[in-house]
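Re: magnesium ion structure - here you go.
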Amino acid sequence: MKNLLVSILFFTAILNCSFGQQAKETEETRPKNIILMIGDGMGISQIYSGMVVNMGWLNIERMRYIGFSKTYSASDFITDSGAGGTAIATGKKTYNGAIGVGTDTMPVKSVLHLAEENGLSTGLVATSTITHATPASFIAHQKSRNSYEAIAADFLKTDIDLFIGGGKNHFEKRSDSINLSDKLRQKGYQVIYDTVGLKKAANSPVAALLSDSHMPAVSEGRGNMLPLSVEVAIEHLSDSNKGFFLMVEGSQIDWACHDTNATYLVEEMIDFDKAVGKALDFAEKDGNTLVIVTADHETGGVAVTGGDIKKGSAEIEFVCHNHTGVPVPVFAFGPGAESFIGFYENTGIFDKMIKLFGFSD
Ligand code: MG
Ligand code: ZN
């Protein structure tokens, strides 16, 4: 009898122990916050170009879980940034040029919409206009990526907590003469026009329109706008402690490759990596933040055909002026990062984020 009691006690202890462990593991692998960072057009050669010129090291290397995303769209072997962004944002492959709509042109909810519905704070940062295809895919629903003014109006249909980028004209110099910035102010946003204002941003929602059209390139004086915006965004979104979803785009890596301009590419790549560094610094301290770094597609068929890591020089060649069909890398850091290893569709990035957040779509 005594032996039986001992065994029962022992068995109960094992049960408790294993249940406790399981609960702990589930909690530990669930991120409270996700920072998704998209280098537009950023394939492995773009990353390595930046790495070599930066004397052989980038922040991206701090991320240990690595996978590959297949980028083709529903309509084309080679995706554009509308279909690519929409696949990552909504988990649905769609036609080239689509913004947050499926192949039937009907709206599809993005991870940002779902985050909002589930009470999280949300944000978008880009070095293009904020209405450009990649950020637009996360917030707007339009049949065409060129409907910039309609995309700007879609921002008002959400309660996004923060957005930072260019594109003031799409909000304030519109063909319908409506000033969307006034409407944003009525909704309680502070509309900010420069990085000085951004640094002083108060606790209310932020709409930072830092340029009439696209942000300038690093070489044209963009300065530290992108890394600074990531810092400000994280501080702002983490403040409420509700958990957050933030998408950050290094928009101009793609444009440099369309231009087959190696210097432009390297400058934009290293700048984007500095922004990645800011996100990783926060994630390391916080412990509840998943950082994902990926691309919507590769651009230019870039090859690194020579170089000197000690001198920080690279010979970079392009096979074309356009996007290519090769898979792009996905780097992950933080709780849930291990689920990003392997080869999967670009829509898998959405699926994994939603699962890790615990949302049902
Ligand atoms: Mg883009
Ligand atoms: Zn492009």
